[in-house]
Amino acid sequence: MEESLEQADQPPPSVTIQGDVDIHHAWIEEHAIAALIFLRKEDSDVSIAVVDDSAMSELHIKHSGVEGTTDVLTFDQGSDDKAVRADIAICIDVASRETEERNHSLEEELLLYIVHGILHCCGFDDKDDESHAKIHAEEDRVFEAIGIGSLWSSKS
Question: What digits encode the pLDDT tens for the residues 3-33?
């Protein structure tokens, strides 16, 4: 009982979004916080930068040695069992292109990238077919739990 009282007094995870883009920041932050709480990472601090293809391409080459844009890059800043501490870059241009082919909103696509980055900080990987399937199944489990429904498995 004492532990649940302490958790109730604990502030929610911190999620901040930076980037001058026309998206519903509060909705994304609220759902990212819900995902962190569901994952029992209540003491988290996640900073999200929404960037365009050009900025993401620069980050991709600088940090991964890979040319071209990508959807998400995650920079773990010391996550542990109780918290995700990360800087996550998500690409608005990639998300815009993806939503043209999917049946969900731009905000949902961006949230998918954020949750993907968070899961990397929780130990998930996607370097082979088996780990790829596991991380995407976990994304869907998180989205179901926070009331959005499966996003990855609905991908066409």
Answer: 444 455 677 899 999 988 889 999 999 999 9
Q: Which residues pair with 72 in a beta bridge?
A: 90
Phi, psi (rounded to 5 degrees) for 58: -65, -45
Give pLDDT tens digits for 63-95. 999 999 999 999 999 999 999 999 999 999 999
pTM of the predicted model as reported, rounded to 2 decimal places: 0.90
Q: Say which residues have a Cβ less than 8 Å from residue 148's Cβ, sequence separation at least 6.
A: 31, 108, 111
What is the C-alpha to C-alpha distance for residues 35 and 48, in angstroms, rounded to an integer?
15
